[in-house]
UniProtKB/TrEMBL annotation:
One family name in Pfam for this protein: Carbam_trans_N
Identification of the protein by name: Carbamoyltransferase
Record domain Carbamoyltransferase C-terminal: where: 373-541
UniProt keyword annotation of Amino-acid biosynthesis present: no
Length: 565
């Protein structure tokens, strides 16, 4: 079957294509439209579809809309209830549901040639569950835990996968929602809800959970697979923070307290689920599954031998999950994800044309990995644009900013480059085989979805990637799957003795991650980055901003090194 998955209703619109059980392509609309998260999660935007992402997925496979066997839309309006009946304060929710019911017609208009009867609604949390249970390696018999803000009428699903079927075992009815409670806290702390929840997680490390016992009156598990989470009187714990005015210790303590309540609740839910399934493997999805601190605690203290989290755990991942669910329902044997690099790519020749057409001075070194390693050893900040773009919010060595981890000042330097708050950490990438001697936590960890303790001997050696609590959100790199990144890491270690490189997303604050060559050049030109490594080519800042009357070396004019003579 050829199945197109669509996520559109709430936020992070995305598309994914599954052909005969194999994931061919997946991308978020924000990478094309350059609007962060694609749109705001309001009812008035519920009609907007990931038109560009869907069209690209089809073109990547050489398909037309009429060639598609089925389309999965990751929300089923027949399962929804009026907002007032669910205890939600959302007077415009009927408009959202109207748009959901008309989604098949909207899709047919957006993708001419698509037949309306091929569009199928897939329950939101089932799509989340399928995105993890069917995409995880070695998960044919596994448990699955989905926790987010909301679906049709619930905010959580616990179940198990048995072959090609996901069987729900428990769900939590709205208005109780761990995701919505965390969103409310995000807004209370002066950040943008449904966008900046990861900032709350980072801020929590600077606080003490001294309010957790009182907060647990409002947020706790119920022992039956569900939980209580609603009507938290945030102002009784700390005054609201003004956006852009910074935070106080009281705000950090509230973040730490809420983080602890979230972790305690999730851990209890995982234990309940294991008691019903006795599985060794747990897969996770939903926006709350992007909380890597909570994930690490579930892995460390929970009853499962292995925990796998969908790298596009938020709503974007339901595009893939909906497609996998329909493919499995149609009889296809679904394949696990080979990696998160499911987005757009360009050939070396296409990249050369981009650089030439933009009149950008560039060179082609013998080995871009060695050149980048030397630049990093010299304390340069490098924009790294290689291969297919990542699906999900994490930069995983395809659209990354890289730096030297041994320079403590590089944390502040990178946050300045990106225009971010200084309390936010940056992450390390490390070769898979070197990780155990440096980090303690779930390994391998290829998707940056767990935090790891940095071993004492390394705390002072890689200070730029050590968070205030002594942890790091690592990415392990497989030489077999990521040979170019692995070569760069090995070369950097030869030069510095450090097997770790700083890796953060290639973007600036409020902007989506860089996706195409134009984005890369715009980001490079507008931020103090020293080197752009784009495919086999490099662009140096000194050459990029050279005055017209200054002569440039032959290599900087686009001549491969070794041919200039």
């Amino acid at each position: 079957m050829r199945v197109l998955g669509i996520n559109a209703l709430f936020h992070d619109p995305a598309a994914a294509l599954v052909v005969d059980g194999h994931t061919v392509a997946a991308a978020e609309e924000e990478r094309f439209s350059r609007r962060k998260h694609g749109k705001r999660p309001v009812p008035f935007a519920a009609w907007e579809l990931p038109v560009k992402a869907a069209a690209w997925c089809l073109s990547e496979a050489g398909l037309r809309p009429q060639d598609i066997d089925a389309v999965a839309y990751s929300f089923d309006p027949d399962l929804a209830k009026p907002a007032v009946d669910m205890g939600l304060d959302d007077p415009w929710d009927p408009l959202r549901l109207t748009y959901a019911r008309e989604a098949p017609s909207f899709l047919c208009d957006a993708l001419p040639g698509l037949e309306r009867e091929k569009v199928h609604f897939v329950a939101h949390h089932l799509a989340h569950a399928a995105s993890s249970a069917f995409a995880a390696p070695g998960a044919e018999h596994s448990s699955v835990l989905v926790v987010d803000g909301r679906g049709e009428s619930t905010s959580h699903l616990a179940g198990r996968r048995r072959g090609g079927v996901v069987e729900p075992l428990a769900s939590q009815q709205l208005p109780h929602s761990l995701g919505l409670v965390y969103e409310e806290l995000t807004a209370h702390l002066g950040f943008l809800r449904s966008s900046d929840e990861y900032k709350v997680m980072a801020l929590a490390s600077y606080g003490k959970p001294r309010m957790a016992a009182e907060l647990a009156r409002y947020v706790h598990s119920t022992g039956d697979g569900g939980f209580v989470a609603k009507n938290v009187p945030w102002e009784s714990f700390a005054p609201p923070a003004e956006p852009g005015r910074g935070w106080s210790q009281e705000h950090a303590d509230l973040a730490a307290s809420a983080q602890k309540c979230l972790e305690d609740t999730l851990l209890d839910m995982a234990r309940w689920l294991h008691g019903r399934t006795h599985d060794k493997v747990l897969t996770m999805a939903g926006g709350v599954a992007l909380n890597c601190v909570a994930n690490a605690r579930i892995a460390a203290e929970g009853p499962f031998s292995r925990v796998w989290v969908q790298p596009a755990a938020g709503d974007a991942g339901t595009a893939l999950g909906g497609a996998l669910a329909l493919a499995s329902r149609g009889g296809d044997v679904t394949e696990p994800m080979a990696g998160a690099d499911l987005g757009r790519r360009w050939s070396d020749e296409e990249l050369r044309r981009w650089l030439t057409d933009a009149a950008v001075p560039f060179e082609q070194p013998d080995d871009v990995a060695e050149t980048v390693a030397q630049a990093l050893a010299d304390d340069a900040i490098v924009a790294w644009f290689q291969g297919r773009a990542e699906y999900g919010p994490r930069a995983l060595g395809h659209r990354s900013l890289l730096a030297h981890p041994g320079r403590a000042a590089n944390l502040e330097r990178l946050n300045d480059v990106k225009g971010r708050e200084q309390f936010r950490p940056v992450a390390p990438m490390v070769l898979e085989e070197r990780a155990p001697e440096i980090f303690d936590g779930p390994l391998p960890s290829p998707y940056m979805l767990f935090v790891h303790q940095v071993r004492p001997a390394w705390l002072d050696r890689i200070p730029a990637v050590v968070h205030t609590d002594g942890t790091a959100r690592i990415q392990t790199v497989s030489s077999a799957k990521e040979p170019l990144v692995a070569r760069m890491l090995a070369a950097f270690e030869r030069l510095t003795g450090l097997p770790v490189v700083v890796n953060t997303s290639l973007n600036t604050a409020g902007r989506p991650m860089v996706d195409d060559p134009r984005d890369a050049l715009e980001c490079f030109g507008s931020s103090p980055v020293d080197l752009l490594a784009i495919g086999p080519y490099v662009v140096r800042r000194a050459d990029f901003f050279r005055r017209p009357d200054e002569s440039a070396p032959a290599a900087a004019a686009g001549v491969p090194r070794g041919e200039a003579a």
